[in-house]
Specification:
The protein is an alpha/beta fold. 43% of the residues lie in helices and 18% in strands. It contains eleven helices and twelve strands. The strands form three sheets. The protein has a six-stranded mixed β-sheet with strand order 1-2-4-3-5-11, sandwiched between helices. Strands 8-9-7-10 form a four-stranded antiparallel β-sheet. The protein starts with a helix and ends with a helix.
Length: 395
């Protein structure tokens, strides 16, 4: 049997296993740092597939790696797996499909890797949606797990087949103020109101929105505002996401928000602090020549990939952190019959629909065959890596 046929046949044979895995994860949604069920099921399946598996990776207790290395040398290719859910909603972003698709692609490529040479890895990265110890891909990059990697691949569920596009850098931050409690009626002059400082900060950020570029997004919530109306709040806190198109723009925005916090502290006498609440999420650096390889393989499977939307996307993904380090693709794969709002009950339903479940096989074949192309054509991989380096340099 030809190499490509071996990959396709393995996907078809194993798809029912991964279909059930996706349904099980959908029925047991877990948020960042608590994906115990999904981590156990996915890492356990990798062991069954013959990968060397490690759990609790890069400081993430629900992170994992799966590695299979051929005796014959070749490139190191990583399939990225996500499996966290949205708080209060569940799998409204399709990550129950995302993880199984990447695992099946890696398992299919493993069937031929001894013949063609190289190393297949799966990186299970928790908390793409953010949250406690979220955006694990930033940790995987920081801890050196991509230093010897040639390229990374994944597909994300969507309402169309679309090439990898740009998105925003995101810095999730905590803003806190500490004041001094006092009886708000009897001796208010003895208190320092931390909530006042937080409100001044919130209003200062609102004023800042008039003076930023169109790519900037700033949004947040108050998480603590005091304990009782008759006590001057001694502590107040908020969570904000600061987003911009590029890392330099984000760093400039971060400094401006820091000044707002400092100003509010000076005005009220409270002590203020702004600090990251999790890993920063970097912007995606597309490598169009890499997406073109995936698009060719998708076309060979009877589907057409659309070009990415022009301009900068409104969301963020820690796949961007990976794309800063190595050539990376994250196209979308269609799981709906038409335009669908994401992070909603509609997208949650699509993530367990028959079309959604069928996307696992389609995506796994396209990803595995794309990886095979890079292994079998060293000149293609060299060109993709050169294109990536240029894209990183000019962002």
């Amino acid at each position: 049997m030809a190499i490509r046929d071996t990959i396709a046949a393995y996907v078809e044979r194993q798809w029912p296993v991964y279909r059930q895995l996706a349904l099980d994860i959908h029925a047991n949604p877990e948020v960042s740092n608590y994906e115990f069920f999904a981590c156990a099921r996915l890492s356990g399946q990798l062991k069954k597939e013959g990968f060397e598996v490690a759990v609790d990776v890069a400081g993430h207790r629900t992170g994992f790696t799966g590695v299979y290395k051929a005796a014959k040398p070749g490139p190191v290719l990583v399939f990225l797996a996500e499996y966290d859910a949205l708080a209060g909603l569940g799998h409204g972003c399709g990550h129950n499909l995302f993880g199984p698709t990447s695992l099946l692609a890696a398992a299919a490529l493993k069937q031929v890797i001894d013949q063609v040479g190289g190393e297949v890895r799966v990186y299970g990265t928790p908390g793409e949606e953010g949250g406690e110890n979220g955006s694990a891909k930033g940790s995987f990059v920081r801890e050196g797990l991509f230093k010897d990697v040639d390229a990374a691949l994944c597909v994300h569920p969507g309402d169309k087949h679309e090439a990898s596009g740009k998105n925003l850098v995101c810095a999730p931050v905590n803003i806190e103020f500490w004041g001094k409690p006092a009886h708000a009626a009897a001796v208010p002059e003895q208190g320092i109101n931390a909530l006042d400082a937080l409100i001044l900060t919130y209003n200062g950020i609102n004023a800042l929105r008039q003076h930023v570029t169109p790519d900037v997004r700033i949004h947040g919530i108050v998480t603590s505002g005091g304990d009782a109306p008759n006590i001057v709040p001694a502590y107040a806190a908020a969570k904000f996401f600061l987003r911009a198109a590029t890392v330099p723009k984000l760093e400039a925005l971060y400094q401006r928000v820091e000044k707002i916090v400092e100003g509010a502290a000076l005005m009220t006498g409270a002590k203020g602090k702004l600090q990251p609440s999790q890993n920063r999420v970097d912007n995606m650096v597309p490598t169009p020549s890499f997406d073109a390889v995936y698009g060719k393989e998708l076309a060979g499977l009877g589907e057409t990939m659309l070009p990415p939307d022009e301009g900068c996307g409104i969301g963020s993904s820690d796949v961007g952190n990976v794309s800063q380090a190595v050539p990376t693709i994250k196209p979308t794969i269609c799981i709906t019959d038409g335009p669908t709002p994401w992070h909603t009950e509609q997208s949650k339903a699509a993530s367990k629909s028959e079309k959604g479940l069928a996307s696992i096989a389609l995506g796994a074949k396209a990803l595995a065959l794309t990886a095979l192309d890079l292994i079998e054509d060293p000149a293609l991989l060299t060109a993709v890596k050169a294109d990536h380096a240029q894209a990183v340099a000019r962002q």
